[in-house]
Each structure stands twice: as structure tokens, then as C-alpha cells.
Amino acid sequence: MATENLPIRFQELLQLQSVGINPSSVSFSNLSMESEKFICVRDQAGPQTAVVIVDVQNPRQPLRLPMTGDSALMNPQSKVIALRAGNHLQIFNIEMKSKMKSYAMTVPVAFWKWISVNTLAIVTADAVYHWSMEGNSEPVKLFERHATLEQTQIINYKVDPTEKWCILIGIAAQGDGRVSGQMQLYSVEKKVSQPLEGHAAAFSSMQLEGAARASTFFSFALKSANASKLHVIEVDAAPAASADSSYQPFTKKTVDIYFPPEAANDFPVAMQISPKHHIIYLVTKFGYVHLYDLQTAALIYMNRISAETIFVTAIHEATGGILGVNRKGQVLLVSVDENTIIPYVTKTLGNYDLAIQLASRCAFPGADSLFTDQFSRLFSQMKYQEAAKVVADSPGGFLRTPQTVARFQSVPPVPGQASALLLYLRVLLEKGRLNVYESLALARLVVSGRKDLLEKWLKEDKLECSEELGDMVREVDPTLALSIYLRANVPNKVISCFADTGAYDKIVIYAKKVGYTPDYHYLIQNLVMQNPAGALNFAQLLVASEDAASMIDVSSVVDIFIQRGMVQEATSLLLDVCSGDREEHGELETRALEINLMAAPQVAEAMFAKGVFSHYDRARVAPLCEKAGLMQRALEHYSELPDIKRCLANTSMMSPDFVVGFFATMVPEWGLECMRELLSNNLRGNLALVVQVATTHTEHYSVASIVELFESYRSNEGVFYYLASIVNTTEDGDLVFKYIESGSKMGQFEEVKRVCRESNVFDAEKVKAYLMEAKLSDQLPLIIVCDRFDFVSDLTRYLHSNNLSKLIEVYVQKVNPMRLPQVVGALLDVDCSEEFIRNLIISVRMCPVEQLVEEVEKRSRLKMLLPWLEARVQEGSQEAGVHNALAKIHVDANNNAENFLLNNAFYDSLSVGKYCETRDPHLAFVAYKRGQCDLELVEVTNKNQLFKSQARYLVERQNAELWAHVLVETNEYRRQVIDQVVSTALPESHNPDEVSSTVKAFMNATLPHELIELLEKIVLENSEFSGNKNLQNLLILTAIRADKSRVMDYVNRLDNYDASDIAAIAVSQDLFEEAFTILRKFKHHVAAVEVLLDQMDDLERAKEYAERVGEKDVWSKLARAQLDHNEPQAAIASYIQADDASHYHAVVSVVHSVGCYGDVVKYLQMARKKVKESFMDTELVYALAKDDQLAAMEEFISAPTSANIANVGDRVYEESMFEAAKILFNNISSWGRLASTLVQLQQYQAAVDAARKANSVKTYKEINVACVNAKEFRLAQICGLNIIVQADELEFIIKHYEGLGYTSELIALMESGLGLERAHMGIFTELGILYSKYREEKLMEHVKLFHARLNISRLIRQCEQAHQWSALCYLYVQYNEHDNAALVMINHPTEAWDHINFKDVIVKVSNIDIFYKAISAYLEYQPSLLCDLLIVLTPRVDHTRVVSVMRKAQQLPLVKSYLAAVQQHNISAVNEAMHDLMIEEEDYKGLRTSIDSFDAYDNIALAHTLEKHELLEFRRIAAYLYKKNGRWAQSVALSKQDHLYKDAMTTAADSKDREVAETLLKFFVENKSKECFAACLFTCYDLLKPDVVMEMAWRAGYTDMAMPYMIQVMREYTGKVDALEAERSKAVEAAKAAEEEQRTMENQYPVQPASFIPMPMTASYAAPDMNSGYYPHPSMMGNGNNMPYPGSFQ
What we know:
28 strands; single chain
């Protein structure tokens, strides 16, 4: 909220509580503000701690992060946060969500702070460290803390902008209530510390007048017992800028700091120095702010801005002020009011020097008159240098005008001294930069002889460049002038300089940069004649620019080049223009090709080769290519089939690769037609080319059509060579067959073999049939096909039938030995000799034995292989197939087969077993058992009833999966197998693993009864496994689950099992007696009694068992059960028997429920001997209280005890046992609860005393309510004063008092609270509301006294409801709601209006409509003061609307003075209103002045009004208006009507209209006015024709009056004729001289031959003939071998 007429602005930016910050979190330890950007708060919201980051620019969206730690600091600029938890420091990037750095300090951190964007300062108990955020560096120790800061709390640490100076600040409380401050100033460069006494300090940088650089200033404030001082010291002094500068060293400044009497204990807590204004902001603990000037240490302003302590501050860069946060969570902004500070310093402080200094340094407004007066005074005293400094320091340079320059220039020079102007300019140069007028004045002094100084100042940017300065310098140095023009942005002069120096390449760049467009065609045309190469470069530069189309027409430029015969240059330009190959360049591309096809075909070929153009007219270019002999290019450009055929007839002139590529561009029908044409013309010559075309473009032309084409010409070669290119990739079997067929016919057997071997797509049956029919000389293709596609039998029969047995041997020996079984089978089928077959088998060493055995076995010829098999065994063969065959032969021959099967290790058990199943099941069992073929063995034994063998195998095998397979429920043979296992296999076994696996299998198969049967066989019958503990456990457990009737028998008979586990399982199966028997048998007494209690619920039996056993643990279990059954006396007796005090919690709980506190006292007294615990003592105290043994209770609590007396007190209080509660609360000094208890006992005075000791708001509230209800208002007020200082509790007090109707007592309470030290805004505000409701006469006084401490918005609402308009208006003004204040005055003038106040308010309103409401109100109530109001509103009102309002009210004369004041704005409505008033008052002089001064009005309407006026002067003004608006005839007519002939003649002359002049002249003749006739000839001399004048004068007899006119006319005509004659003579002489020069030129340079003259082409221009000396563009030249320019077009 800005404070009117004060030098500061003060406003509340934010209330932290409004954005969700807990008020208790707003403290020095939880809140930090490192800069104006962010406020960082450690907020405790319930049990969770979070870090809240408030963006000051966008506070309504705070960022809440779930982070914990002791402290959090936001980086001053970026979203980087530093967290400290204990001694562990971490830096996080919030936007990147990543940790940047972390470090664990070895010593506790006392204070830390960001001192720059990249550096953290860390203060420990002993030293100060700097930790850089960059890299992986660790904190670096900077200096050690001084001894004077040992017992202080560190509150701040700062460094100067250069980080060369550091200050550490701490405070400490003294015994006398004073807070002392200690500081340590440290120099980084000198590494020296200096202890200082002070509370707040800051560094700043400021450049003094005449200094070479900025100096570093150190300011600090202290308050000691004797004095309060502010010191300003220059710690880093800057040298003087020059020897003759006005530099004065800074001297230390010390001033007293004023503290008001009511703030005697106040002291500084923060200091900030504005870098924008160099003003020191000093903030104190009591919320005062002091403003001092840094340079003079002068006090500017002091006031209290906060009732709460501002504990953190930061610079607000935008305003140059400071931000601060107080303990209430208010974020406050204090800054200098730039508009009022200078008037305040001059009027209030009377310090004009300070005002001038502030205005000069900070450009504050309001000091113009001071500077003007000082300048005039110094100038009049001839102190020109001091006057120049005043001009240089003037705010905004308002004194640096042409008049000031002229004033210094007018000072006469003194011999031997520098002129006043030079002194003035020198001072300005020292200060900075000269403006336009000063630069011109300085240039005039030095441009002639000291050009170097001018260059130096321009280089240092000391002069402001202008066109006039450039013109002045151009005569001396064009280059320097160009620099000036460039800086002054004078495009036409810059381009003129570029043109003069030949720097054409810079013209485009500059013109584009400044947005200036010169005539480029004119520049190029001139350049072509002077420098053709330069013209080309310039044109290329133009077309290369982005906006080339707007600068030049390329066609016109090409025409210029062609006209001069510069074809090469034209081509180069076109290439540059069309380099992007865009569609819009099609015409230019066509022209470029036409030029070069006719002039240099090789250049055109290079263009085609590089493909630089693609959008040209191909139809126009194609014939030119054919004529130039570029057949390939012509073929590319033709689009009709006859043209293409004609060009293809010349294939010898084309590259085969090109022809092949060209066929890809044609449609298939045209392509086939062209290939047919080529074959028809020359089959042999063109076959290879056609094959190449067909091979390359197979996908373009269908394969079938190409094959058909070759077949139509019966060309096997064509078919073969064409198909050779696709046979490896085709999926068409017919094509592969044709390829094999044509290859066979051509004798290409190797290729046929390859295709037969590699291809998979042909029809094997068809190829086999063809090869068999063809009976080729080489049968290998047939062998390959039959081998690949399994035609071995057909091949064998074919070769055997054709007596090619040798080929059979070759096939099985060399081609594919693996096919031997099929060959042998086929030979056996055709009854080939056995000898041949045996020899064939023996000749093949590697063949698949199993297949061979299978083929022979199928034909019952297995014994034929016996010799071969035995030979293989003798050779050491271990192949399973060999041994399988031998096994089968032994089985069939019954030749000791079982022995072979048992001893042979190489046969396949599964194969041989299958073979034996139908021959001998026992042999199959042997084979399967040897190979562990489990499933097959089970199947064969089941099928053949071999269950005993199967059972023995299962026990020996120990395979869980096999057991599961056999014992599955669906196995119909399971019972037989189990019987054999139980009766035979398992009793025979002596292997524990076999027994274990068998038992586990029965368990897994879920066969409990069978398992019991099995276990009884093992355990109960005498065997070596009878005493096995696991088997006994298993037997009992199985019985528990499957047959509970056997459990008790097993329990009694067995004695080697796990009793505890078995008992637990028995309990889970409801076998409680069995479990109890087990536990009793094994003497587990505690577990046994638990079964009796928990499962059997038999307390009597348990008690008998406990008496019989006599164990304490058993008694303890029994006691607990009795307690659970609500038998506390029995339970206590049992606990005593058990000597157990461990369950006192449960005992106490049960006793509370039944209320036998006498018994529990005895138990607790016994238990205290064994257990020392607070709970026990607490319950004992409670039991004594409940038993009304208050004396015993008081005696007990007086002795040392660990009882929680507060808890007992709360409990008895809740149960209304107030006497007991009073004793308890008094014992522990719980004053708050004691006070509540005393209230219940109606002892109010004692309750107030207790509340004072408690010092709790909650207690005060309770006592206050009780006292008010009891009408003890004096005691209630004592409590109330302690409540209302808490802003949150104020509403409670007010509602309570008002609800009971005690308003007078409430107002007295609030009035008493005003004088409290902790009085806050709420007290003042609520008191104002109470005055508004109940004591209206006191309201205005209260508002005026305490408006700065009121919550004005709340009081405004109350005053509106109560219709207290005067107070409401005052509050609106203080709240800066001037709109509402003005409306209140307008709507309620009798109560709230005051003219002076209204004027002050109305100028500040923002709603313009209020102005006009005010005008209407003044018209109604105060018309005499309306003009005064309008004068005030002049800058803001719509004058047209004001005039409209006054016209409607018919009160224009009332505001005449206002209209006269605003007429300077030249507003139509105002002008017309003034005209109406002047006409009404017959003030023709004023009207004429207004018409001449202002032109915003309807001239013609005014003229129509005035021409009918009865006064001559007004009619004359009407004629004047007609004249101004060009209505010459009406003006002249009106003047003639009033006989104002002079005006009429002047108007006619001004009209420049001959007809008007002649009409007026004729009027004078008709009215016989000779004198007017002669005067008109003189006045309208230029408009009148001599013949008309002479005729009129002759007819009227006025020849003598017209003679002077005629003499003048004849004199002028004679002069004009003489001038024309002289010009004609000069023209004739010039023509003769030109003709003579032409003859001379023709004689020296004869006319060139016709071949050099460019001939016109069809489209544009033709290039010169190749023999005329033309050379192609350099970029199109080749590399020396006459090839067209490879790589020239990029």
C-alpha cells in the first residue's frame, strides 16, 4: 500500500498462511529467502514435514516437496535447493529431479547461506567454509571464526560483489536485557580478520565521480549501551580516471541512528543496500525501517512498517527496494517512491544538495527546477565547468539541449584559455556519450585539423552519429563518413558511398539489413559497361539473396548480358538462379539450355549430365538436342513412339548402358515393340543388347512376353542367356525346365548340372522324364535329379535295365553313399545277383546301418548281413544299429540270447525290447531293465503278470515319478503290485534308502491305509527298522489323519517319537486326550496344562493337575486362565502361588471392570516388590483415589515415586473427583489443569493465579469464560488481556462477550489491550468494529489515530453496513480505493463530502465514469466549484464528453475558464463550444484568434453561421473561413457583398484560379472602380492573361490604368525569348561537335564483321557462333580430356 506524500512505497505482497503455510513454521530456523525469487519454508503439517517453495511472482501455486531435514535453502536464481540434515549437506536440481552434490561435514553446522548463484557459505563453531556447486569439489575452509563470536548466534553472512570481502554477524543476549552484536570482517586477498561491534552490515559497489572504476563500500550499524551508529567505509578504493579528473577520495561517514523512546530496546537486525539507487535500508527488531543515502550517510526517512519482527530480508531488483518476512507470515515490500522522494527531500528535509545528488545519480523526477536554477547561477558567475557538470548530471539530460549548446557557444573566447564550449563538451565526454547537437558542435571544432580525435571518439562510441555529421566529415574522409552514415542509419548516403568506392558486394547486405531498396537494374547496367566481371558477381549476389524476386528481374538482367554478347555470363547467372531447380524457374532453365544448345552443345551436355535442370520445356529442347547430335538427350526428351524409334535406329551413337536404362522409362508395350524392331533390323547384331535390356528390366516387362519374343525368333541362345539371369531367383518351374531344356540342347551340361543340383522350383518328375528320354551323353544330371528328389528306385531300375551297373557303383560310392539302403532294396526287388549286392555293400564303408538292416529285414534277408555285421564288430564298431541287428539275429536263432542281452553294452534296449515282446517277454524285461525303460517295463510286466519282478524293480529303482505312475488310482494292477511290495520286495530290502523312497512314494500317492499296513509291517513287527524315530512319527501321524481309533494304542506302545510335535498335531485334529496323554507321558507339564485350559476348558482338572505338579509356571498359566474367566480373586491367589507379577496390566484392567480396588491395592503392593514401573505406581495412586484414601494417596505421592500423576489427575478430573484432582495437580505444578479444577470448585481468584502461572492461552480462555459467566469481570479482564494478544483467539472473546450482551465490558477490555506491547492489528480492527456498532461517536477518532494498524477491508464492510459514510470515505482513501471513496462522497454529500478532500481523491480514481458522475453531482450541489474540479480533472477527462454534459445542462458559460484552459488540445467539441460562447459574447477578436490557433472544428458550418451575423467582423471571419477551405468564389462574393475589396483581391490571388481573378476584374470594370481595377492587376498579376486584360481595359477605357501592367508583361516576354535563343544556339553547336566526334571514332574503330553480331533466336537471343571467340562458363569446363565438365554442377 503506497503511502501518500511519503518517499517510500509500502505494500504487502503475500500472506504465507494464505498459501497453506503453518503459522508455527514461520520462523528464523524454518524459513529462508535467499533472493526476491523464492521463499523456502520447512512446514510441519501434522506428523509429516515438507519443504514448501513459494515463487514470489506466482505465489498461489506453491511447490510442496516431501523432504525432511533441519534446513532448506533455495538457490537465488535457479530451481536448485540445498538441504541439511544434521551435518549432511545435499544439493538437488528440482527441475531435473536429480541430486547434484552431497557432503557430510565432520562438525556441526551453525549457519549456512547462498552467497552467489554457484556458492554456499557454511559456518561452523570454528570456521567459515565456501562450497562451490560446480564439479565435485568439497567445502573449502576460508577463515576461522574470531573469539568474539564464540558465544553468539550467527544471524547472517555476506560477501561483496567481487567476493574479496566477507562479513560474519552474530548476536547475543546480555544480562541487562540488551542484545549485543559482534561481527568479523575478513579480507580474502590479505587473509586478515578484524572484529567489529555491530548488528547488521552490507556491502555495495558504486562508482564515484571521476573514478576509473567502481569502489566497494562497507556499511554496518550497531547499537551499544552508549550509542547507536551507522558507519559507511570505502574498503576497496578506486583510482582516479585521469590526472585532471574531479575525483575526490571518499571519507568515512558516521551518523547516529535514532530509536524512538517507545523502542528503547530496539536494535538493527538486517541491512540491505539497493544496487539500483545506492540507498541503505536498515531494518530493526521492532519493525522500523531506516533509509540512508550511501554516499553521504544522510537519513532520508524512518517509519515503522511492521508490528512483528522482520527476521529475513532480500533486495527487490525491479524496484530497488527490499522484501521482508515477519513472524506473522506477511511478505512486505518497501521501496523508494521515485515520484515523491525528491519533493520530500527538498520540502520536508530541506536538503537540496542531497536532492540534487539523488536526482543526478538515480534520475529521480522532481528536481528539474533545482538543476535549472543551479545551472543559471553558475553560468551567470562564469563558472562554466561547474555549470557543465550540472548539465551532465541533470536527470534524463533534460538540460542537454541545442539552446544550452548555443549558450556555451555564445560565450566569447578568452585568449590563452579553452573556450566555454570546449569545456562543456569535455565534461560531457568524461561523463559519457554526446547527443546529436553536442556531437555536431564538437565535430565543427576538430574536423579540419584533428580528424584522429574524431575517429577515437567514434571508436569509443562517445558521439551520436547523424546525417549532418556524416555530411560534414565526407568532405574530409569518405571512409569515416561511411562509418557515420552506417551508425546513423542513412541508407541512401551509405549506398552512395559504397558505389563511390566500388564496394558493390556490400550494397545488398546493407540494403537487406536496413530494409532499403535501391534501383538494382540501374546499378547493373552501369556496371556492365564498366566492369563486366563485377556486374556478373553483383548479379549473382543479388539472385543468391532470399528476396531476389523483389530486387531484380532475372530475365531483364539476362537480356542486358545477351545484348552485350556476354553469353557465358548470362549462362553463369542462369545457373546460379536455377541452382535450386524449382518449378518457378522452368522458363529460365529452358532459356539457358536453348542458348547453349545452339552456341555450345558441350556445355548443354554438361548440364544434362549433371541434371541441374528438371523443370524446363522438354518439347522445345528435344529437337535442338537431335540437331546438335545429342541423340541420347533427344531420346530422353522425346515422348512419341515414332520419334523414339527413329532415334533408336542410331544405337551405334549411343551407350549400351544408356539404351538399357532408357527402356526402363517406357511402358511395356512400347518397350517390346522397340525390342522387336531391334531384332528385326539386325538379329545377330542386336541380340546381346536386347538380352541385356530384357535381363535388366525383367520386372518391367513380363518374363513370359520376353521368352515368347525370343521363341518367336527361334533363338535358343536368347532364351538360355535371358533365363540364366533369372533362373536362380525365379519361382516358376516351367522357366527352369525351359532353361534346362535349352541348356541341354546347347550342350551346356555343367550349367544344367548346377541348376539340377541347386534349384528347388522345377517339376522333378517332368525333368526326370525329359532327361531319361533325352539319353544325354552325360547321365550325371539325371543322377542328381533322382538323388535329390528320392527317385533312387527309378534311377536304379533305369540304370540296371540299361546295363549301366557301373554308374550304380559310382552313385553309391561317390555321389551319395547314404542312398545304399534304397539301392540295395531296389536291386533285391529286381532279383539282382546276391553276389553283386554283397560286393556293393562291402565296397561302401559309410552307410546308415539301421536303414540297411530295415530294408533287408523287410525282405526277410537279414542273415545275409551277418558276415558284414560281424566284420564291423571285429573292427570295433559300437554303433547301436550294428548291435541291434546282431541281437535280433540271436533272438531269432535262440542262440543264448539272454546272455547276449545281459553282457552287450551297445544295443538299444528300447528297440530290442520291443522286438522281444512278442517273442519272449522275459527277454523284453531283461532288455528294458538294462536300459531303465521304466514305462515299457511296467507295461510288459503288467501284460504278462510279472508283478513280483515289477515290485522288486520299483524298490530298487527308487524313482518317485515311476512310483507315482504305478500307484496312480487308474492303474488296474495297483493292488497286485502293492501286495508284492509289502509282502516280498520291501522285506527283502536292507537298504534304508529303498525303504525311505518306498514310504515316500506311498505318502505322495495318498494311500494312508496302505501306508499304515506298510509301516506296521516295518515298525511293529521286529525288523531292523522297528526303532526308527521317523517311521514311528509317520505311523502315528498317518493314523491321526486316516484312522484316529488306532492313535491311543500307538501312543502307548511306541516310545521313540517327537512328543511335542505329535501332541500339537493331535490338538489340531481335536485329539485332546491323546495330546494330554503324550505330554504327560513325556512330562511336558506346562504344555499339558495348556491343553486342559485352552482346548478342554477344564479349570478344576487344571487346578488339580497344578496342585499335583507344583510348578510355578503351571500356576501362572492357571492364573491367567482364571483371569480370562473373570475370577479376579482366584486369579490373584494363583498369581501369588506362582510368585508372578508379569501380568499386572491384565490384572489391573480386569479389576477396573469389576471395581474391587481394595483387592488390587494388595496385589499392586506385592507386585511393586518385584517390578519397578511407572504404570504400577500410577495405578496404585488411582486405586487409592478411587478408594477415597486421599491422605494415603497424598502421603504416597509425596514420597519418591514413578507414578504418572498427571495422568491420574486427568482421570479423576474426568470422573469429577475434584478434591483428589486438586491434590494431584498441585503436586506436579500443573497450573493449567489446577486452574480448571479450581473453577469447578468455584475458587475463581485461585484459578486466575494458577492461570498466570500456567501462562497458556487455552487456560486463560477457560478461566475467562468461567469468570464472565460468574460476572467476575475484573478477573475476566485479567485473563482476556492475555487472550486478545493472540490474533487467532480474538474472535472467540468477542463472540462470547457479545453473546452474553456484555458489550461495555468487551470495549473496556479491547481499549485496555491497545497499550499492550503485543497489540496487533486485530485488536485495533475489532475495537473499530465495536465502536461502529455501539460507540459511533468514538469511531472517527479511532480510525484517524490508528488507520495504519487497522485491517481496513474489514472495517470498511462494517461501516457500509452501519451507513457511517464519513468514516467509510476516510477508510477508502487510506486503503487506496479512491473510486469507492469518490462514490461515497458523491452519493452522500451531506455526510462525507469535502471539496478539498474530493479533489485529492478524484484525481486518483481509475474508473473514468466516476468523473462524469462527479460533474453531475457538482452541477446539482456545488455549481460554483465545478470549474475548479474540472481544472483538476483536465489531464484525465474526455473533454468532448464534458462539453456534451454541459450542453445538455445548458451550462456552458459556467465552465468557460475550463474550456479556455483545455482548448490548447485542439479538440473539436471544445473549439465549437468556445466559438459558440465567443459568438454569443460578440468577441470577434477571440474568435479570429481561436480559428487561427486551432483547426479541429467544422469550418463550413461555422462559416454558414457567421455569414448571416449582423456584425461585419463576423461576416469577414466567414469569408476568411471560406478562403481557408478553398471556397474561393463564396469568399470573394461575401467580401464583395460587404465592399471588402482588398480581402476579395487577396482571396483571388491566393486561389491561383484564373477564372476567379478574371471574374473579380470584370466586376471592378462593371462597377467602374478604376483604382480597384489597377490594384487587382497588381495583386493577381500571375493569374491574368494579357490579352484579356488589354481587351477589358480597351473596352472600358482603362488603358492608362493597365499600362504599367502591360509594360511589365512585355519586359518578361522579351527576356524569355532571349533565353530561348541562347539555348538553341548552344544545342546546334553541341550537335555539330558530337557529329565530328562520331566521324573520328568510326575512322579509328571500323565496324565488326556480321559474324560477331548476335542473331535473334526464336525464343530470345542466339549465342554467338563457336568460332567467334566464345568460351563456355568456367564452371562448365572439363578436366582436360574434352569430356563435358565432370563435377562442375554441384
